[in-house]
Structures are given as C-alpha cells and as structure tokens.
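Support case: user asked for a sample of complex input and structure output to validate their parser. Sending the pair below.
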Amino acid sequence: MGDEVILLDFWRSIFGMRVRIALAEKGVKYEYKEEDLGNKSPLLLEMNPIHKKIPVLIHNGKPICESLIIVQYIDEVWNSKSALLPSDPYERAQARFWADYIDKKVYDAGRKVWPRKGDEMEASKKEFIEVYKVLEEELGDKPYFGGETFGYVDLALIPFYCWFYAYGTIGNVSLEAECPKLIAWAKRCMQKESVAKSLPDQRKIYGYVLEMKKKRFGSE
Amino acid sequence: MGDEVILLDFWRSIFGMRVRIALAEKGVKYEYKEEDLGNKSPLLLEMNPIHKKIPVLIHNGKPICESLIIVQYIDEVWNSKSALLPSDPYERAQARFWADYIDKKVYDAGRKVWPRKGDEMEASKKEFIEVYKVLEEELGDKPYFGGETFGYVDLALIPFYCWFYAYGTIGNVSLEAECPKLIAWAKRCMQKESVAKSLPDQRKIYGYVLEMKKKRFGSE
C-alpha cells in the first residue's frame, strides 16, 4: 500500500503495547521508535504537542494520539482483517465501556499496589482485587471478552498481564487464586503471536519495579 | 420505529446534556427520568451497576453508559441524519482526541475554579484559561470544531458554557477577553434549538454554585 507507519513508543508502556498488538493483529509493518521519556524527541513534541506522551502513531506523516483512539483508528483503516471492535453498535458500545473501565480503574489500581507499605498497601491490594473481580465476572465463561475471538477489550487489558509477576512478588497480590478465569484468559491471549511479541518479559518489568521501589524507599 | 428510549439524567450534569443534545440532533423521542443523586433509583443501580452514575441511555431495555460512548452509539444507530462524527477515519480520530481532551482537562479545570480561595484560586484560574486557550487555538476560524457543521467535539464542549456565568461571577474568570473566538462559537451553538433546549439557564447553575460555596465556606 506504500503506507508509512511509525510508532513512537516506550518498552514498558501498557498503552504502547496496545498499539503494538493492534498493528500485529492487522499485519501492518511499521517503524518502531523507542522514546527516552526523560529527554523526549523533537518528533514526539511536534507530533503530540498537547499531551507530549507516547504512544503516537504517525501514518503518512499525520499523528494519532491516545492508545484507545489509535487502536480504533487502526481498526477502521486496516479493516480487511482481524476486526477488533464488534460490528453491532450495542456490542461496540459495550466494548468501549469495558475498555474505558480498564483505563479508569485498572491502571490506577495497579499503580497503587507497589509504591505503598503496610496498611496503605493492604487497602490498595483489596481495591486492586475488586477491580479485577469485576472483569472476571464480565469475562464469565467466554474465551475472550469479545466472545469467541480476541478483540478490543482483550487488547486493552492484556498488557497489564506483564505486571502481574511484579504485583505478586513485590506486592504479594496474586490474582491466580482470586481470578482463575482471568488468569486462564491471560494465558490464552499470550499464546497469540500478536500478543506475545508485543509484551516485554514479566521479569524485565519486575526488575524495573524493584529498582523504582529501592529508589523510593531505600533498600529492604 | 417503535423504539423505547429512556434517559436517566440529572439537570445540571454536563454529561447528561451531551446525550440530550445528541438525541435532539437526531430527533429521537425519549422519556426523560430525573434522578435524585442522593437517593439513586433502583433502575439506575440496575442499569449501571459498575459506576452507578448518570447519564444512562436505555434503548429497548438495554443500557448504555458513559456520555461519549452513548453519543457514539446514538450516532451509529440513528445514522440517517445529523452525522456527529466525521466519516473519515483520521478526522474521526481527531474528533475523539479533542473530546477526550475535554474530559481529561476541561472538566477538572472548571471544578478547581469555584471551590478555592486566594492564591489557590489564582493558580486554578491560570490553568483554567490555559485549558480553554488550547481549544480556542484548535477552533481557529472555523464556525464549529468539526468544520462547517455542529458535531461531536462541539457537543462534548458546549455544556460547559452554562457554567461560564458562574465562573465569571464567582471565580472572576471571564473567558470573553481571553478566548473571544470560543465565546462566539458558544453563542453560535446556543442558537441551535437542539443545544438551547438541552442546557439549563446559566443563572440556575449560578444559584447552585453560590449555594454550594456557602455550604463549604460559610457566608462571604
């Protein structure tokens, strides 16, 4: 097609991973540009002057920002394979609702787990598990959130999976016992090449969290 | 069409107003049900068990939640007139970006203006004006955000206009001088019947803010 596709991204960004998965699902070839978030590139500042954040997808010179907006754009432009959003308006609204829930609840719940200690951490852990239990219930016995095939909500949520080892090891919050269906779902997603190749290793994330925790609280 | 459409709403909800405007633009007849947010109805709790918030659109018994998701749903279902989102995927992504900016920045900036005093209020006012200046620049010389016709971004932003009198009178923040194009745009939108009939009077909002301010800080 002669399309020029560039992704400005950062390896451990949950939001960047969503875009990587969407591009992989659609089989779109692109140039990946890793950003140094401590020293953002002139290209990032030019392409996302409002938020100055990754990910940014640059398609034939034009920028698209905000991960879920980028994923919807990818789904609309490369629409000949792997539909991510359902075609029915009601189901589409439901998919958008759950992706929005993930952005509003799951991201914050995870951020609160590791940087706390003692009672504060206990309260955060409880909230964390409750947020995931809601998703476990929504998933139910379906193989994917979208039903029989991997879709928009799966893609919005699965990047959090690479943080689970860090949550479990450092925060002592294991979702294995609390949300077994969700863990089975995550493992199912990880068997897809589009997902596996878009997510960093759980231990690499763990190493990063350990380092951040030491910087914040000193050694154990 | 025999559609049953019910809107669970609350008169001064910015988010509810968006849905009212979208329904008016499409000419959809619906039953408006005012919620008492201090004593939420069993119907609201049943229809939005996750967030328990208005607005909720109930279409033939099925609930759709979150204002921008509802508006997209309305645009997709009643698609024979007044398209709200652009048909081009890139323009649609841009419209979604600005509606998201409004949700992330404009709402918070407004909430910070009136409940503060002294220096804190001055800092909030500066931020408030900056947030709107970004929108003023995006609007430029176009009659509407979407171009020649009223659309998704216009609909996402215009409900804030009914708070402007309160901001100006209580917060002493006037956007008239700072963002003249935006004020002209707002007045243009208010000439549309779909908008005018969906927004409460500015003075009714002012009365409410005055009351809240007294409750929080006592009399002047």
